[in-house]
Write a structure and sequence with these properties.
The protein contains 17 helices and 35 strands. The protein has 704 residues and is α+β, with helices and mostly antiparallel strands. Among the domains are: 75-217, Rossmann fold; 336-424, no CATH class; 491-602, Dna Ligase, domain 1 (2-Layer Sandwich). The strands form nine sheets. Strands 13, 14, 15, 20, 23, 24, 31, 34 and 35 form a nine-stranded mixed β-sheet that branches. The chain has a six-stranded mixed β-sheet with strand order 3-2-1-4-11-12, sandwiched between helices. The longest helix has 31 residues, at 200-230. It is globular and about 80 Å long.
């Protein structure tokens, strides 16, 4: 609930290049935005710079919702705490043994990333449970004290604890955790507090990752909270979780592994809310920022959730067994660097110019051409520069960098190289969309592509055309869409419990009792975290598989599993989902339950999408005309419009450039655009055949 003097909500997304902020005032429905360059050396400094830009009064804020890449960057850069592992005797080497598989089978030089905990800092204890959670050997505290003395002598900052079968009975882990916390100041990470699912390697890896990033995240959040409090924040700091919800700063400091995809998932949350509002059944959220591009599938208004995430990628990385929005991420952002490899082939990404120094055209010392520089050289960015004209662009410097670094060595025209950089980036990003849709059994032609990020709308039409997606939707404030999505996120708790049983013989009453126990535990956590929240929503899921298979399908479970038809409903739903994903299903196959899941959302006050209704009543006129290059037409005169000047229902034809404070949208030749009642820019994408037949002289049609 909101107090009378706390009318604003704040969403702030810290990316690799820009820090985006959105402020929503519930009393006036006013939306204010800021976009500043990220300050890697002092991240809160960029956050407070964005506050100053919009004159936000933190004393009036009910929530400050924050998405951060600090946790994932700490893991990827291996800049975390010196960490030790305490595990059951015989499991010291589980981090290296893993699953014993080789994901990249034909790579002769294949190597996994080295474990976050070296072998000399992994310790075994005698305590042991059996597979049913019965004690075989007790915890020996003298044994722990000896380990603790050695860890202190070696300067260890964090301790991960993962004991065998703790997902079934965490009594031993709790005892070890209490003992360590009472006798030392180490950051202690217990596997059962993060995951109550089986898979010893994945649980161990999760506990280790949480311990590894924990001290740094704890210091960062304590510092940020202190600075916000000093600035007058009377509301609550909430952190964006990887599962699409938010959690309190206190919980985030204890469980930072839940924040690994903190920033990217907020855009998917906003896209899902938009699809439900507009009545779309299916959508693909595509967010291209300065460093990476991310895409997520939205199926029937619901974001797909995965139960394992790989830090550093599946082929080489570390598994983290926590709920995370099923997101595909590629190293193709506006700052991705274009270069020639040793063989003389043109490559784009994944290296990024980031915020410092940034693309060459930013004039901040960058020397290597990027995707943004290619767009500038092709005339596709606003003549006045970025951020509403506050950031001037040095287009000539971008052209020189493309010429000197790539075009001259290859002996090719500059414009051909700039266009080639864009085409390579589009192919990379289209492959990500293909992985999230076609490889999951979905036809992208049945989806609308919701595009956001500062760089996403520049390439939306090309990506959609590559995959024959007929409709692109560019929401209001696309450059601030992730920050906006944070304002739409609820406080969320995920509970999961491994429960192995055959569907045919499973005890309905016992399953219902398990669900109710998990729901009550989630309610208690919500009451502790946000006692003033009054409205909750609870969803149930069961991971189901065919007997004899390894992996599962997450199936919505009926409310009230004690009912007579609950099993039949679950069976029918599983068959439909399995057939959708794999193209076939055997209705006579024996099914097995693996994991029960409960998702509890504490519903917070949210801004209304109606706040973005166009205010203009007369059709917009171009504010400028500039020469822009398209493969379909060559150099053409292209009208430039201000997004804010469009009226609802206005239609226009490509090529057209639409500029706004945080982003630029390009409508390519042959495509058509229109503005809907909520201010969304809808692009109707022409097919490849239509575009290839288009005559250059027809480009640049006037808006209506």
């Amino acid at each position: 609930m909101r107090s009378d003097d706390q009318s604003i909500s704040v969403g702030v997304d810290v990316g690799g290049t820009f820090t985006d902020l959105v402020v929503y005032d519930a009393r006036t429905s006013e939306v204010r935005t800021a976009k500043v360059l990220t300050t890697p050396r002092d991240i809160p400094a960029g956050i407070f710079q964005s506050f100053d830009q919009v004159s936000a009064k933190l004393s009036e804020a009910q929530y400050v919702k924050h998405g951060t890449t600090t946790a994932i960057n700490t893991a990827l850069e291996r800049s975390g705490a010196k960490t030790a592992l305490i595990t059951t005797r015989g499991f010291r080497d589980i981090l290296e043994l893993g699953r014993g598989n080789r994901p990249d089978s034909f790579n002769l030089f294949y190597q996994r990333l080295p474990p976050l905990v070296p072998r000399d800092l992994r310790f075994e204890i005698s305590a042991r449970m059996d597979g049913q959670g019965n004690e075989i050997a007790p915890v020996l505290f003298d044994e722990l004290d000896g380990i603790l003395r050695e860890l202190t002598a070696q300067g260890v900052e964090a301790i991960a604890v993962c004991l065998l079968h703790a997902y079934r009975n965490p009594q031993h882990e709790r005892a070890v955790g209490e003992h360590l916390r009472s006798r030392s100041s180490h950051f202690v990470s217990l596997s059962h507090e993060l995951s109550r699912e089986w898979r010893e390697h994945e649980r161990t890896s999760t506990a280790v990752a949480n311990a590894y990033v924990g001290p740094r995240m704890e210091r960062y959040l304590e510092s940020l909270q202190a600075r916000l409090t000093k600035a007058g924040l009377g509301g609550t700091l909430l952190l964006m979780e990887s599962n699409g919800g938010v959690m309190t700063g206190e919980l985030a400091a204890q469980h930072p592994v839940y924040l690994l995809e903190s920033g990217p998932v907020a855009g998917a949350v906003a896209a899902a809310a938009l699809t439900r509002k507009l009545g779309y059944d299916n959508a693909i959220s595509f967010d291209m920022g300065g460093t990476t591009a991310k895409c997520t599938l939205i199926n029937k208004g619901r974001i797909e959730i995965a139960d394992i995430y790989y830090v550093g990628g599946y082929e080489q990385g570390y598994p983290v067994q926590v709920p995370v929005v099923d997101i595909i991420e590629v190293g193709a952002g506006g700052g991705s660097i274009a270069y020639l490899d040793p063989a003389g082939s043109l490559k784009v990404g994944p290296r990024s110019a980031g915020a410092e120094p940034g693309p060459v055209c930013y004039g901040r010392g960058g020397t290597e051409p990027t995707i943004t520089d290619a767009n500038a050289a092709l005339g596709r960015l606003a003549p006045s520069g970025l951020l509403g004209g506050e950031m001037a662009l040095d287009t000539e410097a971008a052209k020189r960098a493309i010429h000197d670094k790539i075009a001259a060595p290859l002996g090719l025209p500059d414009v051909q190289i700039a266009s080639g950089i864009i085409r390579l980036a589009v192919v990379t990003m289209s492959a990500a969309v293909r992985r999230i849709s076609i490889e999951r059994g979905h036809d992208p032609r049945d989806f609308v592509l919701i595009v956001s990020g500062g760089a996403g709308p520049l390439h939306a039409s090309a990506i959609a055309r590559e995959l024959s997606i007929p409709t692109v939707l560019v929401p209001p404030l696309p450059g601030h869409f992730s920050a906006w999505g944070m304002l739409l996120a609820d406080i969320r708790f995920d509970n999961a419990q491994t429960y192995i049983a055959d569907l045919e013989t499973a005890d309905n009453l016992d399953i219902e009792a398990q669900f109710r126990s998990m729901e009550e535990a989630a309610r208690k956590r919500l009451r502790d975290a946000a006692p003033r929240l009054e409205t909750i929503e609870i969803s149930r899921f069961i991971d189901v598989r065919y007997a004899g298979q390894e992996h599962t399908v997450r199936v919505p479970a009926p409310r009230g599993f004690s009912s007579a038809d609950a099993k039949a409903v679950l069976h029918k739903t599983f068959m439909e989902m399995y057939a959708q994903r794999y193209g076939h299903a055997d209705p006579r196959g024996k099914l097995q339950l693996v994991t029960l899941r409960v998702v509890l959302d504490g519903l917070v006050d949210k801004p209304r999408l109606e706040s973005f209704r166009p205010k203009a009543t007369a059709p917009a006129k171009p504010v400028a005309t500039r020469q822009a290059f398209f493969d379909e037409s060559g150099w053409v005169d292209c009208p430039v419009y201000q997004r804010e000047a469009f009226a609802a229902g206005q239609k226009f034809a490509g090529p057209t450039i639409v500029v706004e404070t945080g982003s630029t949208t390009v409508i390519a030749p042959g495509d058509r655009g229109e503005i809907d009642d909520l201010g969304n820019l809808i692009i109707h994408v022409a097919s490849r055949h239509t575009v290839s037949d288009r005559q250059p002289e027809k480009a640049g049609a006037e808006a209506q």
